[in-house]
Amino acid sequence: MGSETQKVVIIDDEPTTLLLLESVVESLVKVVTVSQSVQAFESVKLHRPDLVVLDISMPKMSGFEVCKQIKVCPDTASIPVMFVTSHSDIENERIALS
């Protein structure tokens, strides 16, 4: 990447979580936040981030569904996705790792 500023897209429907995650990394990378899951994939396509931080539980479309959209598109498939959630659930872990 050279001296290029890295970019992270953070997707979460909770404003407090978005602010918290953004404040943790904003001094290190350029941050784009998205609060609606239905806009998430378009934002990832537009910004082409180095990493996507994605909440699992969101209204209208789950983080898993957003991740599928990202991974099936050739333009975005290689972008790493990191899931975040406030729930401790073995099934969510299994799905996230598959």
From TrEMBL:
Coiled coil: none annotated. Residues 7-98 form the Response regulatory domain. Signal peptide: none annotated. Gene3D superfamilies: 3.40.50.2300. One of its GO terms (biological process) is phosphorelay signal transduction system. PROSITE patterns: RESPONSE_REGULATORY. SMART domains: REC (SM00448). Keywords: Phosphoprotein. It comes from the Bacteria. Pfam families: Response_reg (PF00072). The modification 4-aspartylphosphate is found at D55. This is Response regulator. It comes from Alteromonas mediterranea 615.
